[in-house]
Amino acid sequence: MILIQSNTADVSTIDVMDWIFFIEKEQQVKRINNETAIQNMSFRISNADGFSARISTDQGDLDSAGIKKFWYRRGNFSKTLTFSIEDIKLKELLIKLQSNFQRENERMIDNIYTVMEKGDRINNFKENFTNKIHNLSYARNAGLKIPETLVTNSFDELLNFASRHNDVITKDIEFNAFRFSFGKDTQVHIHQPVVKFSMKDIENQSIRNKEKYFGHFSMFQEYTEKKYELRIFFLKGKFYTMAIFSQTNEKTKTDFRNYDTERPNRCIPYQLPEETEMRLTAFMESIDMNCGSVDMIYTPEKEYVFLEVNPVGQFQWLSKNCNYDIERQIALNLLKEQ
């Protein structure tokens, strides 16, 4: 059986499943979607048979013995597996009890993924929490060039860093965009875009805000001039690369993800140098990630600069723009040697 975990609305998952059934009509595929509620679970640890599990969910039963391939696309199991009681007098005690139950629940979910991922897999749940700072360090160790980077909440550190670079950008370390309602008619959308600024901007800001203090850590990087940007989909040692000509558009010049729907960037297939592919492969192996979307820059000085990797990013637009049929490639990988 092929097991796929995803979000209900993820179109990429549907496309991959369509390819699976087109190639092998009778293939057994089980899909579980985001926030699947676990009803019952049992783990077995045997000298003869190893570690296995049986799980009952609101989307059906799972037996780890039948899972031959696992694709973690997106989503999670519901973490609330225990009852809750509301009683003001027992509030402090219940919070402590719930905290202990929650820790146990998290360990149980870890065990579920351990048994689901023990065979051949594409991605895993823990990659949701990949660390940008950690990845930059490992990319450098793999021989990839990275932007000079500073993570700090010290204004003086930022001043010193900015004084050594013509321009600086700031980006999120780990910030998910979110929306919420405010009042009857207002919808609020909060997100952290990539922002470019100079030493002069910082000095002007410091004049207005005399206290040179940050309340929270931020990531800063030297601004790297681009000839074009690269989006690279990596799947078990294979590369599907697209060049994005974002520099002629002021809206996308700093970051192509500031999409211009009226005047879209030109995107074409691209072949990375063999040496760069080898270094990227070494990097992906060092962080134990076998599939992901890598962002890089090609500079006017003909250098390849690594920015970040996203294990669960969208790949359909890359696939369609470059005729790579990535969805088919994922399906073939899941069907291979079951």
Automatic annotation (TrEMBL):
GO molecular function, one term: ribosomal S6-glutamic acid ligase activity
Gene3D superfamilies associated with the record: ATP-grasp fold, B domain
Family annotation (InterPro entries): GRASP_w_spasm
Species of the source: Chryseobacterium kwangjuense
Annotated Gene Ontology cellular component terms: cytoplasm
Protein name, per record: Grasp-with-spasm system ATP-grasp peptide maturase
Record SUPFAM superfamilies: Glutathione synthetase ATP-binding domain-like (SSF56059)
Any GO BP annotation: SOS response
